[in-house]
Amino acid sequence: MKCKFCGKKAEFFLRQRKLYVCKADFFNFLERKVERFIKKYRVKGKILVAISGGKDSLACLSLLSRFLKVSALHLNLGLGEFSKESQRICKEFCKKEGIDLILVNVKEEFKVSPKNFSRKKACSICGVIKRYLTNRIAFENGFKIVATGHTADDLASMIILNFLSGNFDLLFRLKPYTEPSLDLKLVGKIKPLYNVLEEETEFFCKLKGIEFVSVKCKFERYASQTKIKEILNDLTKDLPQIKLQIVSNFLNLAKNVKPEKPKLKFCKICGYPTIRDVCRFCKLIKGYEN
Ligand code: AMP
Ligand code: ZN
User: Fold this and answer.
1) What does the DSSP 8-state code read for residue 9?
2) What is the C-alpha to C-alpha distance for residues 139 and 133, in angstroms, rounded to an integer?
3) 186-233 pLDDT, tens per residue?
4) Separation of alpha carbons 131 and 16, rounded Å
5) Of the residues 60, 82, 130, which should be mutated to test ligand 1's pocket, given the most ligand atoms within 8 Å of the CB?
6) Cβ 101 under 6 angstroms from ligand 1
7) Ligand 1 within 6 A of 50 CB?
8) pLDDT over 70 for what percent of the chain?
9) Rg of the chain over CA atoms, in angstroms?
10) In whole angstroms, what is the distance from residue 110 CA to residue 132 CA?
């Protein structure tokens, strides 16, 4: 088989795109996607990339660093071996690449960890902590934009989950680019890999020799999103392009839907935006939520 781009001998078959490529054009393909994203949304300035130590966020950091000035942020969530290993990998990657890394030990600094919650709640608590701290740390350090490594696999599973649960507000707020609202202390959010597959970030890291966390967080398998991801992966055997189709069809549909903006006020404790008097993060660290 021949590479779709250069016509020379193909080295890989990207199954979920039905695409044959050579190694050089596989890298070009991902770089062009990220470059197009940056141009389309006019992303500029210094970006803070939130990295977990997993393949997606490290691929995201590596690809963005080719086009923009980047720093990285890693939150150590106090989840035993998993967090220790994640932190080590993030530190080593950033040192090797000469990228500044902001490292926050959430358990020590804020006395909170998803570990202290039931396994059913842990993932949603972890989400609250990550969303809040990523925004606050970026804002306090003068960044206007945070990038995350969310992939097409993440988006497709979130779209299905929010749809099935009837969370239409959340559903229609899912998008690859959210503008900053600095007057509300909200930095912008970008997902440059929203149309890249996890299979491809894994491949990218392996080919580039980027070490990524292979242990999984012990709570992950209980999350509904993980179960949807498994179903979608299974479906790709018959419908290889299903994840990319879910994402692109949804984004086309969402273009015409304007979700109501939540009425935000500032948290009485921390001063960051919330729809309540006290934000969920402050409630968590005060022990009001369990
Ligand atoms: P997840 O919520 O684990 O699916 O991760 C989604 C994205 O959030 C990742 O691609 C990262 O960009 C970011 N992220 C996840 N965990 C962390 C962490 N511990 N520290 C910083 N960013 C993270
Ligand atoms: Zn607060």
Assistant:
1) B
2) 10
3) 999 999 999 999 999 999 999 999 999 988 887 888 888 999 999 999
4) 30
5) 130
6) no
7) yes
8) 99
9) 19
10) 12
Neighbours of 237 (CB within 10 A): 9
Residue 285 corresponds to which amino acid? I
Q: Write down the residue that tokens 């980027």 correspond to.
A: 210
Looking only at the bridges linking them, the beta strands covering 47-50 and 145-147 are: parallel
Enumerate residues 6+ apart whose C-beta is below 8 A from 127.
none
Q: What is the pLDDT of residues 79-92, one digit of tens each?
A: 889 999 999 999 99
75 ligand 1 Cβ < 6 A:
yes
Other Cβ atoms less than 10 A from the Cβ of 156: the count is 23
User: Binning pLDDT at 50, 70 and 90, where does residue 290 land?
Assistant: low
pTM above 0.70, yes or no: yes
CA–CA separation, 6 and 3 (whole Å): 6
- Residue at 221: amino acid letter: R
Structure tokens at 40: 């389309």
Beta strands in the chain (DSSP E): 12-14, 19-21, 47-50, 70-76, 101-105, 145-147, 177-178, 188-190, 265-266, 273-274
